[in-house]
Amino acid sequence: MRSWIERMRPIARHLPLAIKRPLRACLPARIVVPGTDGDGYAIRSAAEQAIFSGQMEVHDLPPIFHYWSNTWLRPELEKFGFSDPDGFFVHWLERTATGLARPLRVASLGSGNCDTEIRVARQLVARGVRDFRIDCIDLNAAMLERGRLLAEAEGVGGHIRPLQADFNQWEPAHSYEAILANQSLHHVLQLENLFSAIEQALVPEGRFITSDIIGRNGHMRWPEAMEIIHEYWSELPRAYRWNVQLRRRERKLKDWDCSVEGFEGIRAQDILPLLVERFGFEFFFAFGNLVDPFIDRSFGPHFDAGAAWDRDFIDRVHRRDEAEMRKGTITPTHMLAVLRRRPYHGELRCRPGLEPAHCVRRVVS
Predict the structure, then answer these.
(1) What is the pTM of this model?
(2) Most buried one in 155, 221, 302, 318, CB count within 10 A?
(3) What is the structure's pLDDT at 15?
């Protein structure tokens, strides 16, 4: 099986998207019991690597996303001392390094091309934090090599150490003052094992700093959210209902389970409940749900960030999002969080009405 996967991987990378997606749908159904044995995991792992190996930019989003984030998220984030996800990581790493009598040791899980880690390293150096190293851990050797070359080119090669490993089976070799997970937890099948490894690897005062997706598995919509989304969907011009990624028109938004192709969103809905159960929260910023389909890569490209109707539509959906999340009708699909090993009795900083436990979905359906 492994030899077949290796032979197909170079071919699959160059297939048109319209062909790749039906092929990916033939992968085995989602693995329910956490484990890494058998051909099912091997196929998913190969698919995951094939999907990302050729991607130079894995976080690119349409202009309407940036309109939304700059208009609505940035002012809220600035209340906590930073304005974007990179600034979030820099802010908490700088705090962790302050007063430290030894070099700051950081592990970044699922670092891919190491682009976030390199930007963070440059900002830390610019702020006077120079005695640190970030171990960039990822399964994909091609992406790690790009990261190594980019780190050298950006002048932070001495701070970035690429390490190839499957973080489903991560066994930390030593302790860390900080562990980062930037949009990587929703790719993890063995979350319990990973969180145990993180607890083991963190020094007593260490921080687990993460930005991730915490919605339904496969990035699908829960029924209570989909019902509200369809209210707004009916307002969209016909041209806006063309799914750019799946190349199909959707009269009503259709759920698509991303987890059938590799590990995308494989256990996203389990992330927050497990974190609440196993860690103490020092910081928590939860956001987004209803607005997601309108600003993502599938339908977001149709919106003109400079057009009044488009901006007004996104603004209305965002306001509804916030109101429904605070009522508990729906739960957030994204979070920034800083966690500590238990017992932790310090202060929790978060947005009022959006505490971690409040954001765990409790509706059964």
Answers:
(1) 0.84
(2) 221
(3) 41
